[in-house]
Amino acid sequence: MLAFVILNYNTWEETLKCVGSIFETCKQEYKIYIVDNGSKNKSYQRLKEQYENNGKVKLIQSENYGYAIGNNIGIREAIRDGFDIVTIVNNDVIFLDDSINHMYSFLVNNPDAAVAAPYILSPNGEFQNVPTLKPMSKKNYFLYNTRIQLLTSKNSRLKFRRKLYLSGESIKEEPILIHKFSGCCFMAKSKMLEQVGLFDENTFLYYEEDILCFKMKSHGYKVYFLPNAKIVHYHGLTTGKVNLFVDTEMLKSEMYLLVKYYKMNIFGLFFIYFDRAITPLISKLKHKYDIPLSEYTRFLSETYKHFMKWYRTERKT
After folding, report:
1. Phi, psi of 131 (to 5 degrees)
2. CA distance linking residue 45 with residue 74, whole number of Å
């Protein structure tokens, strides 16, 4: 049986569209778990009015604990209800044609597969959220995922990207073994999710799928990209545009990933922290958004304390 877990935060209209695409395209026996993540508008009431008499939809009201905890609430409920395959999907996603059937059939017919990841299209029809083929090494994290990359040659950067990311030219019709998928939509076996401990609940937003992929790899689970399973992702409707909140949560989550899962030394951690900490200032200079000094100081204080808390915690273990 197949379950869907959808988080809603203030954007109930998008949730209706996402659910509608499931109604229109899903051919399996299924149930949809909508977790309203502490919406500040009337989302919960609107969704309740829409689905309270629909047996295929279960609406769960929660506080806003973020992406990981919110999804885990829905996943645990689905597993308790006996669903052996769970689709985690953002509410700004629309399923196309037989995308659900392709992912579900693949997982059922391939015992070695733990996750099926779809081909993600932008509203303009462009390939987005490109999967990675392998984990990024610590060395490459410094060379190509910080501002040090500006000192590397164009050829070396292109070579790195070709080895790390799935290229459009290599995509045919056959499933492709990958390392990391997008958290906006993927289908997973419940047994795997239970064994790895679901999403790590120490992040609020961002890097959840990176961490999940680390945990899956440590348990020997495999992820496949399915070119025939196509969805459309209307990215950013829930979190909104680039702003200091996004920078804050992204930096907190990235530093947690690097401390807990990459096991980076303190010198590397500090370098990456300061590399990211100047991002809001660069955004200000590029006029992406205005930022008063007091808010930037608060950003530094919050992210640094969070980083050091997890660094000290890991040193004790």
Report:
1. -70, 155
2. 18
Decide if 80 contacts 31 (C-beta within 8 A): no
Residue with tokens 């950013």: 236
Residue 258: DSSP 8-state: I
CA distances for 19 relative to 14, 44, 54, 267, angstroms: 9, 15, 12, 46
Residues 6+ apart with CB under 8 A from 64: 9, 37, 38, 70
Find the Cα–Cα–Cα–Cα dihedral 175, 97, 103, 223, rounded to 10°: 50
> Residue 132, Cβ neighbours under 10 Å: how many?
17
Each residue of 65-85: pLDDT tens digit? 999 999 999 999 999 999 999
Query: If you write DSSP's letter for every residue of 206-241 in order, what string do you get?
Result: S-HHHHHHHHHHHTT-EEEEEEEEEEEE-TTTTT-S
Q: What is the pTM of this model?
A: 0.93
Distance CA 282, CA 183 (A): 27
User: 237 pLDDT exceeds 70?
Assistant: no
Residue 317 has pLDDT above 80, yes or no: no
Are the C-beta atoms of 269 and 259 separated by less than 8 Å?
A: yes
**Tokens linked to 41:** 């508008």
In this predicted structure, what is the pLDDT of residue 316? Answer: 84
Where helices occur in the chain by DSSP H, the ranges are 12-25, 43-51, 67-80, 99-109, 138-144, 154-164, 190-196, 208-218, 244-257, 266-277, 279-285, 293-316
- pLDDT of 238 above 90: no
